[in-house]
Amino acid sequence: MPKYTHFAIVASFFCLWLNSFFTEKTEIIIAFIFILTIGILHGANDLILIETTKSDKKDSSYIRNLINYIIIVLSGLALFYLLPILALALFIIVSAFHFGDQQGLYFNFKAPKIILAAYPFLYGLLILFLLFFFNSVEVESIVSAIIRIPTLYLYITEILLTTLILFSSISIYFFWNFTPFRKKIVSELFYLIVFAILFKTSSLIWGFAIYFIIWHSVPSILDQMKFIYGTVNFKHFQTYCKNGFAYWLASLIGIAVLYLLFKDKEIFNALFFSFLAAITFPHVFVILKMMHKKHKKATQC
Q1: What's the pTM?
Q2: Which EC class, in a word (predicted)?
Q3: CB 149 within 8 A of CB 183
Q4: Which of 228, 287, 298 is nearest to 97 (CA)?
Q5: Cα separation of 187 and 183, whole Å?
Q6: Lowest mean pLDDT: which of 85-89, 107-111, 174-178?
Q7: 139 in Cβ contact with 132 (< 8 Å)
Q8: How far apart are CA 120 and CA 102, in angstroms?
Q9: Contacts of 41 (CB under 8 A, 6+ apart)
Q10: d(CA 19, CA 86)
């Protein structure tokens, strides 16, 4: 979506400029409004996507899919409570796959499958750890609350450098061996520079909100609408919102309950991010399946 990426770049820097007029409290409120509306909405049609991606429609049951989806969310919450370090590590891994997938880094090169699979994952990991690197103090505070360890060293710089080396190595390999890749890598490296500027010049919550909404959620909604309905228009957007309303409302109610119960306690931030992570787990796998089916259709045309 070249036209959208032009808009995304302008919108991102506009948000950075706009933020100079906000107080810290206003910034947090606006960021959370976007995350709790557009951010959650982009995962609100997962059950419909499951139905659409099913190869055997006869074996597809909405109630069964709903129950399985809820079980995965509750399992994610339980994992954050019982084994928070493992849960956090899994969340970072699946989120990296998710963010890299959204960039559409699928190739039909005659290269080992493990390299083709690792490439979008490394790209997503780069995005995450650029955000963590430029906001390490805030990240360490939140992670400490989640895993219930007062002080810890997260190796953010080391992981970022390792990921950058691996990503650069594969990029050089692709660039040297596959001509079609050369134009793609130039644009993707440019986007990484844009992300680095965004994360460097903004707070953790504002930088994440800009990336998550403008660069991830909105493009994902557009991709989902095209996948489900065939085209993107306002009528289909209305249908998309209507079909996802129940899921969106249930998520907001869950977050509201957490806030009412723990708003005066330090643990709320940990619980909030744990809840968002838990509802992210099933969504990531649904979108991965959608993107792979979309890519498979494209290669067959």
Answers
A1: 0.85
A2: oxidoreductase
A3: no
A4: 287
A5: 7
A6: 107-111
A7: yes
A8: 9
A9: 217, 221, 241, 244, 248
A10: 35
